TrEMBL record:
Protein name: Uncharacterized protein
Length: 317
């Protein structure tokens, strides 16, 4: 039997432009223990004043550093800022030149690759940068590039698509308060119990990855479809369980009332009514037993996703 890879923490590396996306870092801060994010270098990083000014201008023209700075303040200890110095840019250039032509299409992915070494030994690092953030984008990219369903993609693409499909509002570009959404996500991500639960999601995703940690378009689409189905099943089961718990209390009261009515003259009709309610309760209890088979602990990964959707107010409790 194949042994699945285990690690103490999972860190995600980002690119110089990830903060510009709608709902930036919301899914990532929930899916990874920590984010490594490249930032403009400063004098404190041993860079000359001339280079600092040059980089500041370059970032301002392309990547909105003020938005990034504000998001880093919200992320706090959930992210480490890595100065994107000339030395690291040179390393990025070498990485790009070493890549095959197919990988050359996404230079931002190479940015994340350069940052991977900044994760500690206790953590496995993956490049959280993905050119795809939804099943629709995945299909569109496949049509444009004539991508075959079995073409290999980085395993992190699966988590990126899953996160954006299930942990962001349906129309994140319509949400003009990305910062509030990020604050809510960071608050959830700080919970130690949540971080333990997240291991179930890491285990679950392994079913859609190769032994080398890669995936493909068909596997990503299948994973998202399955997770949506599991979450929907869990929502239904949860609703049935709530009704069942209420019903059991009511039927328990009715049973007591029925027994009592038989001891008190003149309340026979009430006793008959209570008996009928109890009979109905037996049927409902049987339904409740079925609902109990799919509870919030039976599928830990789906339970985690549903819990996150509720906490982010994407899903009604």
């Amino acid at each position: 039997m194949e042994t699945r890879e285990r690690w103490h923490q999972l860190w995600g590396t980002c690119s110089v432009k990830d903060h510009k996306l709608p709902g930036a870092f919301v899914a990532e801060v929930l899916l990874y223990d920590k984010l490594l994010i490249p930032v403009p270098p400063t004098l404190a990083d041993g860079v000359s004043a001339e280079d600092v000014e040059s980089e500041r201008e370059r970032w301002s023209n392309h990547w909105d550093p003020e938005r990034q700075k504000r998001m880093l303040e919200i992320l706090g200890d959930r992210a480490d800022a890595i100065p994107w110095t000339a030395e690291r840019q040179a390393e990025w250039q070498k990485c790009m030149e070493a890549q095959v032509a197919d990988a050359r299409r996404d230079g931002y992915f190479a940015t994340g690759t350069v940052l991977q070494r900044f994760a500690p030994v206790m953590a496995r690092s993956v490049v959280a940068v993905s050119q795809y953030h939804s099943v629709a984008e995945l299909k569109k990219g496949a049509r444009i590039r004539r991508v075959e369903p079995h073409e290999r993609l980085p395993g992190s693409s699966l988590m990126a698509v899953l996160g954006y499909e299930l942990l962001l509002p349906d129309d994140p570009e319509q949400d003009d308060d990305d910062f509030k959404l990020l604050r809510d996500a960071v608050e959830v991500a700080r919970d130690g119990i949540f971080r333990e639960k997240r291991r179930a999601l890491y285990d679950w995703q392994q079913d859609f990855l190769s032994a080398e940690g890669e995936t493909d378009a068909a596997s990503i689409e299948s994973a998202v479809t399955e997770m949506k189905r599991l979450v929907d099943e869990m929502k239904t089961a949860t609703a049935r369980q709530r009704n069942w718990k209420w019903a059991k209390k009511f039927f328990s009261f009715s049973d007591a009332a029925s027994k009592c009515s038989k001891l008190i003259p003149g309340v026979g009709v009430f006793g008959l009514l209570a008996d009928a309610v109890i009979s109905l309760g037996k049927f409902t209890t049987e339904e409740g037993v079925e609902a109990d088979k799919v509870d919030r602990n039976s599928i830990p990964a789906a339970s985690l996703i549903l819990e996150l959707r509720e906490k982010l107010e994407i899903e009604e409790r």
